[in-house]
Design a protein that fits this description.
This protein is an alpha+beta fold. The chain is built from 8 helices and 26 strands.
Length: about 450
C-alpha cells in the first residue's frame, strides 16, 4: 500500500498538484475502505482486491477536486461489482462434449477457489442399450468425465419423484444445466436459493431449441456466439440473458465447410469461459440483469433450432438446390431418398415397391456430355450407357438437382443391403428401366421413376 501511495503522489506531483501528505489521498477497492480522523489509511481487503484498485488524488484545499487513477489486471469489461454469495453447492446437469467443457472449467475453478464453489454434483441420464440384441450399454459421455474428476454422479431419466442430494456442506443452491435434454421443473429450481443457469451455443433469442449448432450451419450463418441465461420456470431457452458474446458475434471458421463437431469444438470452450466468468462475477445473484443485445429488428425473423428428425435428411428433389443438398449432407450426414425397385423375374409376375436408399457418398461433378435434356426431371438417376446396364469400370450414376447441377452418386445403401458402389447397387436392386434414349450421339438409361 505504501508503495502504491508513493507512486500515486509522484503522479500527482508530475501533474502540478500539491502533495498534502497521506491525508490527501484515498484508496478505494472493491473490498471496502476506511480513513481515520488522523488521516491514516486503512484498507479492508476482500478476495476481489487483487482484481481492481482505484486511487483518488485530491487537489489543494478542503474542497479540492479529485482525480482518479485506476490500476487493474482485468480488461475494462470486468470492472463492475462482484456480487457476494454463499459458497456454491452446484448440481450440474449435462450430457455431451459441449457440457463436458463447462463441467471441466467449473471443476478447475472449484479447485482454485473452494470458498466460491464448495461442491459439484453431476446429473446425467442413464446409459442406453445399443447394438445387436441390445446387449451393450452406451453411457452418456459426461459420465466418464465426472468419474475421472471424482465427482458424485446421479443418474435420472426424469425429475418426477426425484429430489436433489444434500451435500456434506448443505443443500444444493445452484442448478446448472448445459446441453442436458430434460426440462428442469420449478420444484427443483425453487429448492436452490440461486435458481438455475444454462449455457446455450447461440446468440439468443435466435436458434432457441435442442439443435442450435446444426441449424446455425444449415442456415448458412457466418458468425455465432454463446449465451449465459437463467433457467426459465416454464419453457426452454426463455430465461434472462446474463452474459452473451458481444455483437456482432464471432466468425465461424471456414463456414462453408464447417461441420457440427468442428463448430462444437470451437464454441464449447467459449461457453465454458462465459459460465465461469458469470460465476466469478455473481451474475446469478438476485436481482439479475438482462443484458441481451439483440434488438427488435434483429429478432423479427428468428430460427427455431428444433430437434433433428429423419425427415430432415430426406431429399426434396423438387425444391432443394445443390447448395442445400451439399449443406445438409455436410451438417446432418448421409441423406436418403426412395427408389422404385422391381421384383426378381424368377419369382413370378413383375411387381414394384419403394425402397429407401441412403446416398452414403455423393459429390458435385460436371454434367456428362449430352445429358442436358435430363435436367427437366430433378432426382432421376441415369447412366450414359445403353440398356441393359452393366457395372463396368468408369461408369457412374448421376442425377440432376433442381438448379440444373449434377450430383454423382458414388456409393449408396439400398434398404436391406450393404453399402455398395452406387451403380452396382442400382443394378442389383433392378432400379433401371428397360429402355434407353439417345442424345447428341450418346445413349442414356434412367431409373424407372425419379427418386422421391
Amino acid at each position: 500500500i505504501a508503495s502504491s501511495a508513493t507512486r500515486t503522489q509522484a503522479i500527482a506531483s508530475q501533474r502540478g498538484e500539491r502533495d498534502e501528505g497521506p491525508g490527501s489521498m484515498m484508496l478505494i477497492s472493491r473490498g471496502g475502505l476506511s480513513i481515520s480522523r488522523s488521516f491514516e489509511l486503512r484498507l479492508e481487503l476482500s478476495p476481489a482486491f487483487a482484481e481492481s484498485i482505484m486511487f483518488v488524488v485530491r487537489g489543494a484545499g478542503p474542497f479540492g477536486l479529485c482525480k482518479t487513477i485506476s490500476i487493474s489486471r482485468w480488461p475494462a469489461s470486468r470492472l463492475y461489482s462482484t456480487k457476494t454469495h454463499d459458497p456454491l453447492r452446484i448440481l450440474f446437469c449435462g450430457s455431451d462434449e459441449f457440457s463436458i467443457a463447462s463441467l471441466k472449467a467449473l471443476h478447475a475453478y472449484h479447485l482454485k477457489q473452494p470458498n466460491r464453489i464448495a461442491s459439484i454434483d453431476v446429473v446425467c441420464r442413464p446409459g442406453k442399450r445399443v447394438g445387436r440384441g441390445l446387449k451393450k450399454i452406451r453411457q452418456v459421455p459426461i459420465r466418464e468425465t465426472a468419474e475421472s474428476l471424482s465427482l458424485p454422479i446421479h443418474e435420472i431419466d426424469t425429475f418426477t419423484g426425484w429430489t436433489p442430494p444434500v451435500t456434506p456442506n448443505g443443500p444444493i443452491n445452484l442448478i446448472i444445466a448445459v446441453s442436458f435434454g430434460l426440462f428442469v421443473p420449478p420444484r427443483i429450481l425453487n429448492s436452490a436459493s440461486y435458481g438455475g443457469l444454462n449455457v446455450h451455443p447461440s446468440l439468443l433469442p435466435d436458434f432457441r431449441g435442442p439443435a442450435p449448432l446444426h441449424h446455425t450451419l444449415l442456415a448458412g450463418e457466418k458468425s455465432t456466439g454463446v449465451t449465459l441465461q437463467t433457467l426459465h420456470h416454464k419453457t426452454f431457452d426463455h430465461g434472462t440473458i446474463l452474459a452473451q458474446t458481444p455483437p456482432p458475434g464471432i466468425d465461424i471458421p471456414n463456414p462453408d465447410f464447417c461441420t457440427v463437431p468442428e463448430l462444437l469444438n470451437f464454441v464449447a470452450p467459449k461457453g465454458a469461459q462465459l459460465l465461469v466468468d458469470g460465476i466469478k462475477d455473481g451474475l446469478f445473484v438476485p436481482p439479475v440483469k438482462e443484458v441481451g443485445w439483440r434488438t427488435k429488428e434483429t429478432t423479427e425473423n428468428l430460427t427455431h433450432a428444433s430437434k433433428i428428425k429423419p425427415e430432415d435428411l430426406h431429399i426434396d428433389w423438387a425444391n432443394w438446390t445443390m447448395l442445400e443438398i451439399n449443406r445438409r449432407n455436410r451438417v446432418l450426414g448421409p441423406l436418403w431418398s426412395k427408389a422404385l425397385v422391381a421384383s426378381n423375374p424368377s419369382d413370378g409376375p413383375l411387381t414394384f415397391q419403394q425402397k429407401r436408399v441412403i446416398l452414403t457418398e455423393i459429390e458435385e461433378v460436371e454434367p456428362p456430355k449430352g445429358c442436358d435434356t435430363l435436367a427437366v426431371v430433378p432426382g432421376l438417376p441415369f447412366v450414359n450407357v445403353p440398356c441393359p446396364v452393366e457395372p463396368k469400370k468408369g461408369r457412374a450414376l448421376h442425377a440432376f438437382t433442381r438448379d440444373g447441377r449434377v450430383l454423382r452418386i458414388n456409393k449408396m445403401k439400398v434398404e436391406g443391403e450393404a453399402v455398395a458402389d452406387g451403380l452396382r447397387a442400382a443394378i442389383k436392386a433392378r432400379m433401371f428401366g428397360d429402355r434407353s434414349f439417345q442424345s447428341e450421339s450418346v445413349e442414356f438409361t434412367t431409373f424407372r421413376n425419379p427418386l422421391v
